[in-house]
Design goal:
CATH class of one domain: Mainly Alpha
CATH architecture of one domain: Orthogonal Bundle
Protein name: MmgE/PrpD
Radius of gyration: 36 Å
Helix content: 25-40%
Number of strands: 24
Structural class: alpha+beta
Largest sheet: 18 strands, mixed
Shape: elongated
Strand content: 5-15%
Organism: Penicillium patulum
Number of helices: 42
CATH topology of one domain: 2-methylcitrate dehydratase PrpD
Distance between the termini: 77 Å
GO molecular function: lyase activity
Family: Belongs to the PrpD family.
CATH superfamily of one domain: 2-methylcitrate dehydratase PrpD
Mean pLDDT: 93
Amino acid sequence: MVSRKVYNMCQRHTVTSELARDPSQCPQEVFHELFESHHASHKYDGVDLEISDVNKASEWETMNELQKARACGNFGSVETSDLFLKVYHDALCCLEENPMSGVVSPRLMGSTGVLPLTIVGPLPDLCRHLANCIVHAEHEVFLGTNFWIYSDASTLVTNAIRELSKRAGERGQKIVMKMIYDRGDPRQAWENRLRVREEQYIAGKVRLPPASEIPNVDLQVINFHRPVFGTFHAKFTVIDRRMAIIQSSNIQDNDNLEMLAHIEGPIVDSFYDTALLSWGKVLDPPFPLLNSPARDALIPCHEARNSGSSIENGDIALPEHTTKSPHYDRYFEQEARRVNGCIHPQGGETRTQAVSRHLNTTIQPDTTGDAPEIDQDNMFNPYMILPHHEPFAMAVVNREPYGSPNHSNVYTPQNTAWLSAINNAQNSILIQTPNMNAEPLIEPLINAVRRGIVVSCYLCLGYNDAGELLPFQNGTNEMTANRMYNSLQTEEEKSRLRICYYVGKDQTRPIHNSFKKRSCHIKLMIVDEQIAIQGNGNLDTQSFFHSQEVNVLIDSKLVCRAWTELINRNQNTAKYGAASTKDGCWHDPETDKIAVGSIGPVPVDIVNYVYHSSLNQDDEAIWKCARTALLDAMGCAIETAATSTECRKLLGPVVEGTVVPDGFRVPGTELQVDPVKGAFDLGILIRYLDHNDALGGAEWGHPSDNLGAIIPVMDWLSRASLSGRRVHDGPPLTIQTLLIALVKAYEIQGCYQMRNAFNAYGIDHVVLVKLASAAVVCWLLGMTDEQAMATISHVWMDGHPNRVYRSGANTIPRKGWAAGDAARRAVQLALLVQDGQPGSAGALSAKPWGFWERTFGEEGFVLPRQFGSWTVQNVLFKSMPVEGHAISAVEAAVLQARRFRQRGLSDPLKQIRRIDLRTTAAAFLIVNKHGPLHNAADRDHCIQYVVALTFLKGSPPEAADYLDESPWANSEELEVLRERIVVQSDPKFTEDYLELDKRSIGAGMTVHLADGSSLPQILIEYPVGHARNPQTPAAIQEKFFQNMGLMFSATEIGRVLGAVQNPDTLISDFIDLFMQPLAKARW
């Protein structure tokens, strides 16, 4: 509610009026004395002010809230809509706690004015108007901008300053000009506003005119920034205290479509006051018009029209105003005719080509358009002169700069006005902004859609994606769109949310901002075609929480309808730029491909699944499978720790003797290491003997590899939290959280390997361990969505493992630690991003170096289904240490070997002539090997080796059978029999292998005997360990007890089982159950 305190502030003097009385004062100090000191409650009340009877407490108390709000403004007899008053009311309330939050004297926050001219066009068009206004200044100019960079755009303005000096000299005057920009300087840590010396501003990237070139302009420049994040993002100009120009653009060459509003009338005093507070230092010299308010003067555009400013011979083309050939127009009509006339076709151009010529600037002069000519029927006209109108209600809704690296500075007039406008909308909301990710705005917009409001959001594809992926920036436009659509339940609701990506007037598709060809930088919100908020503030995290912004709230159906028409006329966004309601991305209507350079739905979908998708807690089948997967993986780790000397040599700190407080305790050992090395160690323990679970697809993989990253991070976080060395902001560090992380990591890896053959590009499948682990570890660490996105981008930018180490003579033990290496890297990347490293939005799609450009091309990744819990319920648990593609063949070999002996046969070498083995295409590619086998890693990935071994042993292989010291490694008998095994790829097996509803691992084996007879084919489609095989649960349980029994007693194993059944078991307590001294190892 509007308090009496706020009302009283709105009756006091203003910073401007106090400086008019004594120009030697500092504006900031005046504001403090007026509104923030302990004297402010009474010091200036009633001094030289006409306070109406409403100031009486009794009458004040009888007013409703909207009447109180209106009483705080200077609206006179102008009518105000209820919607305007609601928004203005809520913005006013911010002044209660922080009067400076609006960067204007409260009395001037609400006023009236007219808006005779609006420009929606490329940046040079805005600078042309700015130049025209500067040239015709008679006393003073204030110009504030975020970036000022020497360019064609800046030259248009500096030419005008030179011309202004010339004209002022001819009149015998001197113009006072003050300018603010933001160029970060370390000294601003002590003094936010730095005076810029002439030798600094005339050189380098600024290049303002030196005093010698503008003798009749007294130019002063301030560099304003409030560290760390308090950017001066304002872009507005006040000239002669009679006109205010508020624009979306900086002064620099770019490819942006921008917007400018030219405002006149009493509201100019409000912008003037904001200018003085932004300057913040003593005005020396002072502005000449400190004592000449706009409210007491004629409105210039009304005066011009009354004096007969219409332009004759309107059909004659006027030459373009350029840096080399300036043409300064005094009246809007002539200026609009000059600029709009330049867009008519010239020299045989089509209308679309004429638009392209105008939109092309110095940084992209050759962009061509493909829009059909019919799109130009509604002509592109940058300048719109509105019909004559009387003053209407306006308010400045600004925000002050806030530098601290947190999101606490929320309650400002700008932010509150946005939220109030959204919350009070009755019919429609139209937004255009480069970026939209400010968290406090997202849910209100979604709620507006739910209550029946049509919400149209015109965003720019890829605008500053790299910056939006920085920590705490809340992600890209595509992430926001994806999230908003996913929050809506019905197609009807989704139809009311109309997110589009900017499409230039000469284009038929959005062009990603990274190409710098067609972008949009407009900042505008129109609600119910009654009110609008236009100015400097983007609807992004930076503008919402940190930057100084200047915006105007207007109350005019005339202007709102004109702006809506102009915005849609001068771009093709609504026609061609619609985002998909499925993923929030733009898709080509013919190919369904996302835009080139787009970050796309891939990382967005992963993050949404990990962070915002709930698993069914009541579906016991999911959690039973998850517990089985966890126990199986831990059993594999203990098996390796107990039996593999080779693997044990890889465990422990990189530098022997390193002590890591709260470090991860490596199961089966007494080692304690950091979480990065811990991910490597547990990863290799689970994977090294090739006994952990597996899943087939276009790419093979082992989902339990992800536990190598998940468990060490959780154990470390648990111990560090308990010791007080780290504050944990993520989910509870319990078994239940571990099972959730397991299911989701399994699912990400499982979905990606179904249809995407990374091996076809020489990339090993452990890249998917890195992907899935990174995403889930970010969640466990308590990182934000955008940090997770940034981490995923690093996964795709990272060096990818070449699968040569699984191939032929190059097969080496690295295949046993490759998954641990991927898990290690996933943890390391997440920690790097958590410490502030940014991501890259183009990691997948950027040309020419994005991951897709080097691999899958425009097709990108293909996913067979939405993320859920399918993988953990369909994973293959290995009952034997055999490469997954060969397991069915080994089972068939066990049965055929039994038949062989049942016939009374005993010598496979003499009595078997050939073994025909039909299998999947994946098995044929991966484990079908001929020639010498060089080491254990090579042998366990050879289907002929494991089948021959099974016939000779009469039982499945064991891990020791692959070792160099095994008698089988150099067995001539095995080599002879191996050469008699003929492997063929079977199309039906391959089809069923890839079909989600079957996921079989088919193998058919026929044995041809030396006497001419044969052992009929044995067909194995679902080996033991497969979800469809009824023997799987018992076999995996037996495997677990056997592996754990290598180090632990039955009682100790029982404690492990009990801990897994209790969802509240702390992970550190769980891992403590696996600790054992080295003496327990069996070698």
